[in-house]
Known about the structure:
By secondary structure, this protein is an alpha/beta fold. 36% of the residues lie in helices and 25% in strands. It is globular, with a radius of gyration of 18 Å.
Amino acid sequence: MCVLEADNLVKVYKGSNEISSTKALDGLSLKVKKEEFIAIMGPSGSGKTTLLNILNGIDKPNSGWVNISGNKISHMNRDELALFRRKHLGFVFQEFNLLDSLTLKENIMLPLIMDGRATEEMEQKAGNIMSLFDIKSIGNKYPCNVSGGQQQRAAVARAIVNDPDIIFADEPTGNLDSKSAKDVMSCFKKMNEEGGSTILLVTHDVFTASYCKKVIFIKDGRIHLELVRKGERKEFFQSILDCLTVLGGERNDL
């Protein structure tokens, strides 16, 4: 079953004249099936962030369309898109984006509160997810009183509490040390393997990408290569490195 489909996406950022315009996406097409766990990688300026923003409705393409669960989000107006994103999509960002005035538990329940869910249901769902990610014991603490890794785990929990059709993550380990990054990616792995979540993330980090089942490499706004994981994560890590070298990624892009 296809959760997301994008067809012939073109995105041009116009400069002061035609010469200074930049084509960020150049006829890119993509399909994401249910329960896939995909990373998008590529050199700086390859178009990966633009692609993610168009796929999740933050931005619109100049041409082409995006369909999620049978809904063409690229054709929705602002109000329709806002409601669809809230009900059907989950988001994890590099900057945690937790509300400082709420506890971790309250942050996690926020999508359910906005949907007017019953208190008992919210408590149960939040409790189950916090247990899964090993943060239930700190659920009543505020973001400023826990580590960056614990904040990001809470952000990941918030992203799935509403059972979204697909989760989008933008550099989810970008602000974390290596141990916290490992903990967060283990959460993503649990979500995918135990919860059946469909996940699409953008990352520069080979370690982060190695947790995924597939890596899509883009360059100059087009898909150049797809790499599917078949063996152990360490082997996949090396394969990703090799592909980035072929694409011309700089060492600081990793």
